[in-house]
Design goal:
Layout: H1 17-30, H2 34-39, E1 52-54, H3 62-71, H4 75-83, E2 86-87, E3 99-100, E4 106-109, H5 115-120, E5 127-130, H6 136-139, E6 149-152, H7 153-163, H8 188-192, H9 195-198, H10 222-228, H11 232-257, H12 260-297, H13 306-311
Parallel strand pairs: 1-6, 4-5, 4-6
Antiparallel strand pairs: 2-3
Length: 312
């Protein structure tokens, strides 16, 4: 639509329902892996085990819930969430969300612990969700697996009815069966390097190139030149030796010129040049004297060309 009156944005995208269920199941499995939970940024150093399951969380108020979470080692993660409150940059503060807060633990409860939802709503970073309404946005915020999930006993037992197992279909999700793992051992390096696999592998093949793929210039590549011309190396040696001899001879000639014999020859050339200059000056002076005598006698006038015209 050209030039709409309202900004049209694609806020939602349709995903297959089975694919969404597989994603939720994978996110739940990732929440039980300690390295993934730590990689997401949660502080789980003092937590006894993952997944963390409470026998009962029917607490009357927020204070009781906070005490229960601190007793099981979740105090560090809650403190991290409280200290992460920062103001949002830019004009996003206008959208009724001025502050940014990190995600804390997610409490998954069942039908017998409905009061935990009211008790946890004032704890920063703590989210609650019923076991029958698990969604990928809460289990993997921002697309990152490994959310710290706290289960109640009733909520943990309700997972079997929601997702089933590899031997039994789900009760709540009709026709849904969990994905089966393709590998029982995920240690690929151990499998590849095992004796059973290595004994069945063929020997390593080595390819021998008959011709080089790239053509190299013999004028710039000494190895190719020596291969084409066996005399090239000796020729280069002779040329270098001749060049060295030429430099030595030139240095000796320069030294001889700058010595006593060179100075004497230079003095001789200088005397000869000075003599020639003196003779030339004498000849010019004699010509000028002759012209002056002719002018006095009246035989020569400067600029007189009458005789030359008569001759013509």
């Amino acid at each position: 639509m050209y030039n709409p009156l309202k900004p049209w944005r694609k806020w939602h995208r349709r995903v297959n329902i089975t694919q969404r269920r597989h994603a939720v199941a994978s996110a739940l499995a990732a929440s039980a892996v300690a390295p993934l939970v730590m990689a997401r940024g949660h502080a789980i150093q003092n937590i006894p085990e993952l997944p963390l399951v409470f026998d009962q969380l029917s607490v009357p108020n927020t204070k009781s819930l906070l005490t229960a979470l601190n007793n099981f080692g979740l105090g560090d993660d809650l403190a991290k969430v409280r200290s992460s409150r920062t103001s949002r940059n830019g004009t996003g503060k206008y959208r009724n969300s001025k502050y940014i807060l990190k995600k804390g633990p997610l409490v998954v409860y069942g039908d017998d612990c409905a009061t935990v939802k009211r008790a946890a709503r004032n704890l920063p970073g703590v989210d609650t969700c019923h076991v029958s309404r698990l969604n990928i946005i809460q289990l993997a915020p921002g697309g990152h697996l490994g959310r710290l999930v706290v289960f109640t006993k009733c909520g943990f037992n309700g997972l079997n009815a929601q997702f089933g197992s590899h031997f039994r279909n789900s009760v709540a999700k009709v026709g849904y069966t969990m994905n089966r793992p393709m590998m029982t051992c995920a240690d690929l390096s151990r499998i590849i390097n095992s004796d059973q696999v290595q004994s069945k592998l063929r020997e390593t093949r080595t390819s021998v190139r008959i011709h080089d793929k790239t053509k190299k210039n013999p004028l710039t590549n000494k190895a190719i030149m020596n291969r084409l011309n066996p005399f090239a190396k000796q020729q280069a040696t002779l040329l270098a030796k001749r060049e060295q001899e030429r430099h030595a001879a030139r240095a000796a000639a320069i030294k001889a010129k700058r010595g006593k014999a060179g100075k004497a020859a230079k003095n001789t050339r200088t005397e000869r040049y000075n003599g020639l200059q003196t003779d030339l000056k004498s000849a010019y002076q004699a010509a000028e004297d002759l012209i002056a005598e002719e002018e006095k006698a009246g035989n020569y006038m400067p600029g007189d060309t009458s005789e030359e015209e008569e001759d013509d």
